[in-house]
Every structure is written in structure tokens, then in C-alpha cells.
Amino acid sequence: MDVNQPVTQRSKVPSLGRLGLVDDRANANLAKLGWNVESRVDVLWSLSRAPDADAALCAIVRLAEALGDGWDELNAALASDRGLRGRLFGVLGSSLALGDHLVANPQAWHLLQGSVRLPTVGQLGTAFAECVAEPPRAAGSVVWRLRTLYRNRVLVLAALDLASTVENEPVLPFSAIGAHLADIADAALAAALSVAESTVCGDATPPRLAVIAMGKCGARELNYVSDVDVIFVGESADPVSARVAGEMMRLASDAFFQVDAGLRPEGRHGELVRTLDSHITYYQQWAKTWEFQALLKARPAAGDAELGKQYIAALMPMVWTACERDDFVSEVQAMRRRVEQLVPADVRTRELKLGSGGLRDVEFAVQLLQLVHGRTDESLHVASTVDALAALGAGGYVGRDDTANMTASYEFLRLLEHRLQLQRLKRTHLLPAFDDDEALRWLARAAHIRPDGSHDALGVLREELRRHALRVSRLHAKLFYQPLLESLAPEGLEFSEGMTPAAAERQLAALGYEAPQSALTHLAALINQSGRRGRVQSVLLPRLLDWLSDTPDPDAGLLAYRRISEAMVAHRWYLSTLRDKLAVAKRLMHVLGTSAYVPDLLMRAPEVIQNYSDGPSGPKLLDVDPETVAGALVASAGRQIDPVRSIAIARSLRRRELARIASADLLGMLEVTDVCAALTSVWVAVLQAALNAVIQANLPDDGKAPAAIAVIGMGRLGGRELGYGSDADVLFVCEPAEGAQDSDAVRWAGAVAEQTRALLGTASSDPPLEVDANLRPEGRSGPLVRTIASYAAYYDQWAQPWEVQALLRADAVAGDPELGRRFLLMIDKTRYPADGVSPETVLEIRRMKARVDSERLPRGADPKTHTKLGRGGLADIEWTVQLLQLRYASDVEALHNTSTLESLDAAAEAALITAEDADLLREAWLTATRARNALVLVRGKPSDQLPGPGRQLNTVAVAAGWQKNGDGGEFLDNYLRVTRRAKAVVHKIFDE
Q1: CA atoms within 13 A of residue 109's CA, in its CB half-sphere
Q2: What's the pLDDT at 150?
Q3: In 3D, which of 745, 741, 718 has the Cα closest to residue 729?
Q4: Which family does the record assign (predicted)?
């Protein structure tokens, strides 16, 4: 019902339901007040507009009982004072806590009567000063008086804020509410400081002490319920000053709000009071970037005004040069990640402050832009978020429409935050559950939300929440990048009146780009493409660049995106997919900003990008069976007669599969063991396809091969544990066909094997396909191919311990399967000797390992961080497992296994080692394998050495799945800890 409609229409007798009174006690409560619908229709119509009419009515009953005889005065005033009705019913229908305050202090209703105005700063200061000047009447009375005065001031503000929900009173601007709450807080802090000085110092002269407000209080945008962050500056940092500050905090926390000094230098571990010189020294030498960001909102609030001014004058210049610090970018990114991780996943969509598209997104973006551009533009030296947004818009750093939209969304979310906090005067930022219609309906009414043509108030609130969260999320990216992109004119790097070249470079540098000039060149090339492509890129790039800035190497990512975009000019689906499927675009940016290995593959296998989307059963990147892919690869290659073309087909399919596997790996969709198995599968398929093609091309005229050929995988290929940079270690074995001479068979098979190796090893832009046969008998000096009988004779008579050890990982991978099976049966007696290995052989293996440790490690390599040969690395774990196999495989059949991890599990199951030791070795093997794979993904070429601290280590950490915060230092610490523990186990098992 519209309160502005004619009184004759409003005077029609409504039902209680139409008045919003659905509580079963409504009739009884009306009777207690002496109200009935016929005689109090105007009052009840006003009551019906309260966010919760039943709660307001119950509070009025309690207030009437508390007033006693004074109820008649209030009752009469309600009938005649429309403004009082709006203010009182608005408060009682919105805030249970303020209702309790009115019941405890019933005469406070007079504060809401007549023409109510907010007191000035001076009036507030006088009121609080007079409150503490009154002589004490009882223990704790000062705190009680201060608490009552503070609640009365909040009551008046809330009443004016809420009155429009009932009687269409003027709406208080959001900025006025936050500013007045800060003014109340200043007066309250000054009063608390006065009492603390009197308590600690008595008649003695109190120390000079300035109270610096920080956070929302410092910015004069305080919430109804919020901690008030402060920093203390003293003329001297003596015990008396600290006692005064501590007593002020205690008293203020008891009377008003929680006072928090955690933003002081060194946080809660630092001195509560420091001198100005001590503050200056700390910020010059020790302060982190977040501490300068916090100082953006610093403001003298109470205490010694001159000392407060000196503090601001001394520290603010440091704030505006913080973006020049070496660690500025990494610290800003780390802060953003920490904030995101604070929100539990189950409430993320309900979090007004820290959730996606929430208040912190706006505040973080605004503060970052202030820090970046404030060094050269003093108009940005403002504390309030809304004022800073306006200044950024006026300076051309943010588009005008975006400024207006972001401000509107920010104020809407803050309005909801205020209403939620007023309900019980509790600090909260959490929306009601989305299926709690009653709580959401109350929130909609308390926030002035009215039905529109298609939705009731509840529906409008849900739609507004969705719209504002989405808008903030999208504008967050546009704030950083849209003005920058708009300033790139079609001619090239020519800037409009908005952002200057220097400002654009500063902004890109602050967002993690180490080569901002090159980044601007790439951006200009992308948005200045002709026609539709350029327009779509202009729309896409703000969001893409935002995602790229979260990757460890945005410079490389942007270059890779430009290269792929230019290569995909003829493919209309490319930009359409990125525009319409945000999951694809976000995943692509993560991959491009992390890996040098994948972009080159995507350039030649772009269709994999389409698989970055989600299908009905999950990510399409996983909607593939490696064995099926391998079969298709062999079949497709087999349709070609020319072996060169056949291998080209195999390479093409391998390229696509490598791009798929590596993409899924980087996106955290595959376990490292699955990655190794998939890479092995594709390598085996390529070997099989190449061998088939070469055999077909080398058949004699009668079409019958002189020999059967099998390829035996060795090392990681045999163990199905290949990494991205692994070669294929193999043995070639043949068996003469019926009627063929051994020499002819070996000669023909040798030609086939050599041609297969040569064709696979042909130079290509793809990752290399090196086939290594150096583990064959007699090594490089021995024949490339032997018959199975020749292998048997050699191993019976001449096999060295290292050759026996190498056979532990032999497995048939390609060629004639029956021949491969018989070869494995033949070598079993060598690699799994019936009586185990002799002590001399064990000693020889230990000596070989010692030589490997001392001689094979590359010059300059760090033995602690070399993933293959370093301490607790892959070689340590694999040699230990293989020694266990040599010693005990004769008794434990489960050790007849080429997989390192499966053999490790078998050793633990057979109690050859403890479960704890097995877990430590397994963790080290997985950690080193992830790191080794990550090195190839990041560098684009094989590598075993982890880099030192810096961007590349951070990138390796992300590529290895270290998602805790992308911190390379933490990743390295974990690697060193895991491998150190594994090395201790290796010493115990291998050396002893």
C-alpha cells in the first residue's frame, strides 16, 4: 500500500495480514496497546511498511511496558507525528538490538521525535566530553554512560537511515552514513582517551599521544558494526604512554566497539606505542606493501592533533612511492590470493565482503590503482573508496560509465551489509541462505527494495544480488584494463587524453608485466585487427588480461596469446569460443601464462582449445581414453603407404594428444601417475605406427618379412613412467622367419630399426622423438638388433650388474607381441635370479651408484635440487627399489614389476621395508616427477635442475600444482623437506 495515497483510501479497514501482521500474537499485542484497526489505521499502515511488522509490534509492546505511564505520551505522538512513526517503526522492524536498547532506555524515543537532524562533529565531541566529565556515581558508570550515549547516537542515525522504508522520508546518502559513524567513533575514542588519561595519570600531565584511525574509520566510511583499527603515536614510547593506550582500547572496546591495533608496525608482536621517528624508521626499512596500502586510509582521529598531523606528513610520501618497490607486484598478488582463500567454499556466494564480486574486489582494485598512479597524480590522494573511484574516473584511469556502475554496485552491497549488521548489531557480511525466503524478504524491505512489474521484493533482491555481483566481477577486470585499451589508437601506440603512455606502463608493471612496453605493443596489435576480430578482442581483453595477471608469467602469456590469435585468423570459432565460454578463456590464459611447452603445440593443434570447455560428464580434456587414442593413432598412420607421410600423421596425432595431456596437467585435472601413463601410451603408439610403416616399406617383393621384430621398452618407457622430456630407451629384438638365415634376418631387422630411429628423430618443431638404444648389449659398440637367442647367450655369459638392473624395467611395447612376450620370459631368469643376487653384486651396484652420484651430476648443478640425480631424487628412489627387486624378487613374485611405485608397494606389502619408509619414498618420487615435468612445461625443453628463487621458480611451482599460493619459496621448501626425508630412507635401505 502506498503511504502517499489519499487518506480516504488508506482509511479502509485492512486485515491484519494486509498489514504484515502474521504472528499469532498480533491481536493480543494490539490489545495490550489499546490499538484497533479502525481507530489506528494510519499508525498501522505505517507499521505495515516496517521491514518486519510483527517484530516492530512486539518491540512497541515491550517499550510501552517499560514506559509505564509515559506510554500515553508516545501513543499520542505516534498518532500525530508521521516522521516519528517512520523513524521508530523503521528501527524496530529492522534492528532487534536497537529495540532492546530502547526498552532498556525508554525515554530515548524522544530523540526520534519532531524535526530530527544529525549532530555536527562539534556537537558530538561536546556530548561525549560532557558524558565523561560527569562525576562517577558507581563502579562502571562511565562505561555505562558512554555505551548509552553511543547507542543513542547510532539509534538516531539508524532511524534517519531507515525512515524511508516506512514513511518515504528522505534517504540518507551512503557516504553520509559512513562519515557520521566515523565522526561518532572519533568522539567516542576521544572520550575513552580522556578517561584513560585520568585513570592512568591522575592529576599528572598525561603523555602526548595521537590516535590514528585506519581502515574504514580512517576513510570515514565506517560500518554500523566494525572493528575500529588504530595506530598509536607517542611523543615518547614510555610505559605510561603504553598504559594509557591499552586502557583506552579496553574502555572503548567495553563501551562502543572493538578497538584493534593489529595494523601497527610488527602487528600484534610490536610495541603498542611508538614514537614518530620509530614509525618512520620502520616504514623506511621493514614495512611490507600491504602496510603501505593500509596507510592509504590513515587519519588522525583523537589525541594530540599536531602529532597526528606530523605522522601523516611523514608517512604519506612513502605510500605514494610504494609501487616502486621490487616486491610490489608479488606482494599485491599474494595479498589477493590470501583474501580469496579466506572464504570457505560453501559460503562464497553469500559473502558480501570477501566473495567473488564482493566489496573487497572493489576496494582492492581501487587501492591498487591509487598506489600505481597516485605518485604522479595528487587528486588520487583520498581515503574513501567512493571518493577514490570518482577521482580515478575524473583522471581517466577508469571509464566514466564504469565509475558510475562500480560506485552504484559498491553502495548497494554496503547498504545490504549495513542492514544485516543492524539486525543484531553484530559484525557480519554473510547474506541469508538463498532458500531462506523469510530472511531475504526482510532484507529486501529493510534495503528499500520494492516490487517491480515482474518480481516481488524478494525476486527483485535476488536479481539485484546476481546483477551487482556479476557487474563487480566484470568491472574488476575493466577497471584495470579498459582505459588502457581505449587509449591505444588504431595508428598504434598513440594515446588519447585518458591514460598517458607512462601511466599505462606503470599500471601494467604493477599488474605483473615485467616488459610493459612490449605488452602494449601486443595489445595494440590485438585490438587494432580489422573488422570483427578487433572489436571482439577489445571486449575480451580486459577479462583475459585480468586472468593473465594472476599467472606467474603474464608477459609470456600475452605474447603466446597474440601468436595464437594471429595464427587463428581464419578460424571464426576461436574468438567466439573465448567470448561465449568463459571457462575456456580462463583456462587458456592460465596455460599460456604458465607454460612455454603448450603454446607451440596449440599453434599446430588449435582444436584442443575447444576441449577446454566442460561436457556433460566433466572437462572435455578428460573425456578421452589414452588407449583408444593410441589405437586411432596407429590405425590412421597405417593408412599411408609412404612411411614419411605415415610418421607425419602419427606426429600430428601425437601433437594433439601432448597438447591435451599437458593442458589437463597444468589445469590440475590429472594426477602425475596418469600423466606418465598417458605420455607412455602416446609414445608407444608412435613407435608402433613408425615401425609398422617402415616394415611395410621394406618388405621384399614376395611381401614376406624375413624376421619378426619386437621393441622392448627400457627405463621409464618400460616402467610406463615417461615424462614430457623423456627419451624412449629401447632394445630391438628379432627372430628369423621360417627358412630365413639369422644373418639375413638380423641385417633386414637392423635396417628397419635404424630407419625407424632416423625417421622419428627427424628435426621438427614438435617435442623431440629420440629413440635411444644404448642399453643394448655392448652399448654403442654392439649391434642395434639381435636375435632372441643371441640376447639369451649374451645375458647368460656376459651380463654386467648394471645390465641386469636395467632389465628390471624391460617390457614389450611395440612390434610382434608374441616375440616380445617370449623375450620377457627369457630375461626373467636373468633379472629375477632364483637365488637372488650375490653380496658381491650388491656391493658392485652400490659402487656404481656412488660413481653416478659423484660423476654424472652436471657441473654447477645443485645436488639438493636436481630432480633426477640429486639428494632424494628420482635416481635415489629408483635404485633403491631396484636393489630390493634384485635381492628379493626370487621370493616375492609381486616384485616382478617394471613400475617403481607398484614395486614399492609390493616391497612394503611383503614387509621388506616399513610402510612409513615406503610412504616417504613414494612422496619423494611423485614430488620429483611433478617437478621434472613442470620444468619441461615451463621451459619448453628437457631440464632436471630446479631454478633459484624468482619468477621461474614461481612458475614451476604453479605448473607442478603447488596451488597453496603459487609461492615458489614454499614449493622449494617442501621439495627440500620431502627429498631430505627420502634420502634418509635411501641411506637406511640402499647403503646398509
Answers
A1: 32
A2: 97
A3: 718
A4: Belongs to the GlnE family.
The grid coordinates of residue 89 equal: 517503526
Task: Give the per-residue pLDDT at 801.
Answer: 92
327-486 topology per CATH: Four Helix Bundle (Hemerythrin (Met), subunit A) (1.20.120)
Question: For the chain, what are the domain ranges?
Answer: 7-172, 327-486, 500-600, 683-831, 839-991
What is the rounded CA–CA span in Å between residue 689 and residue 630?
10
The class (CATH top level) of 839-991 is: mainly alpha
d(CA 706, CA 854) in angstroms, rounded, equals 46
User: Angle at the Cα of 385 (from 381 to 391), degrees rounded to 5?
Assistant: 50
Closest CA to 665 of 651, 676, 650: 676
- Estimate to the nearest angstrom the gap between the alpha carbon of 333 and the chain centroid: 9
For the chain, 992 residues long, the average pLDDT of each consecutive 10-residue run is 41 70 84 86 89 93 94 94 93 95 96 93 95 70 93 96 83 92 97 94 93 96 95 94 96 94 93 96 92 94 96 95 77 70 74 83 88 90 95 87 90 94 92 87 87 77 86 76 69 50 82 88 87 85 87 94 93 92 94 96 94 88 88 90 91 93 96 96 95 94 92 96 93 94 94 94 82 92 95 94 95 96 96 88 90 85 93 96 94 95 96 96 97 96 92 92 74 96 94 75
Q: DSSP label at 987?
A: I
CATH architecture of 683-831: 2-Layer Sandwich (3.30)
DSSP code, position 6 = -
DSSP3 helix / strand / coil % (the chain, rounded to 5): 65, 5, 30
Q: Is 709 helix (H, G, I), strand (E, B) or coil?
A: strand
Q: Alpha-carbon distance 128 to 153, whole Å?
A: 10
**Would you say 720 and 676 are in contact if contact means Cβ atoms under 8 Å apart?**
yes
Q: What is the pLDDT of residue 347?
A: 74
Which residues lie closer than 8 Å to 845 by C-beta, 6 or more apart?
A: 801, 802, 805, 879, 883, 886
Angle at which helices 672-697 and 742-760 cross, to 10°: 120
Rounded CA-CA distance 963/66 in Å is 58
Residues 807, 776 contacting (CB under 8 angstroms): no
